[in-house]
């Protein structure tokens, strides 16, 4: 967990995706971006390096993770899609948040 923030009166838990994937911190000097997700009745911000095109893909074109997928990615991936001869890994948000506590960050900090 990278921290928490107040977004329009809602407490948002921020998850650093580089840390979650076991990657080193970016050293390009660019600030990370945050993508907001609502999951398990809570709001989360996922810190990422960049975002590309947003796509809506049919679930029937999703394939299982390839056996040679980097284990750091495989533990957080919900499958892959083939796009223009390349694989796009689909992030499984439930898996990303498995280690994020469901407690209120305000009460957790007081404990």
UniProtKB/TrEMBL annotation:
InterPro entries, alphabetized: CheW, CheW-like_dom_sf, CheW-lke_dom
GO cellular component: cytosol
Protein name per the record: Chemotaxis protein CheW
Recorded superkingdom: Bacteria
Organism of derivation: Bradyrhizobium elkanii
Domain CheW-like: 1-102
GO terms classed as biological process: chemotaxis; signal transduction
